[in-house]
Inverse folding.
């Protein structure tokens, strides 16, 4: 099975936020959508990803001012991505090696979806 199959069933919508948005507003978006990560964009391009893990790591440093800081200050800039032709096994290996739970899907330099560890596990269970 390929990532494309997952995107066809779950949809291609990706929650994105501006790098200038405050962390508080980004957290509100995560809570509203009940998701664990949002892709961060600047000028229409992927600039990073903000994960629950990024937020928690910064809570211990200066939690009082964290809410008012821009997302760009705490997002992960080195975004690991995949493509729609990648196999489930490819994605599982990448997520395990890099210890990540969310993979934006990029085709031709364009953001076309996102897959989570939950998506991958669900499909793996269905395949057995």
């Amino acid at each position: 099975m390929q990532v494309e199959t997952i995107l066809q069933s779950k949809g291609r919508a990706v929650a994105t936020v501006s790098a200038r948005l405050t962390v508080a507003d980004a957290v509100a978006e995560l809570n509203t959508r009940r998701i664990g990560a949002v892709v961060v964009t600047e000028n229409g391009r992927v600039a990073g990803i903000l994960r629950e893990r990024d937020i928690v790591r910064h809570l211990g440093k200066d939690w009082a001012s964290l809410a008012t800081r821009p997302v760009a200050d705490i997002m992960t800039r080195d975004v690991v991505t995949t493509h729609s032709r990648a196999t489930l096994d490819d994605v599982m290996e990448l997520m395990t090696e890099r210890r990540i739970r969310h993979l934006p899907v990029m085709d031709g330099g364009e953001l076309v979806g996102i897959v989570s560890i939950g998506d991958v596990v669900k499909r793996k269970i269905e395949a057995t």
Notes: Strands lie at 16-18, 37-42, 45-51, 102-107, 110-116.
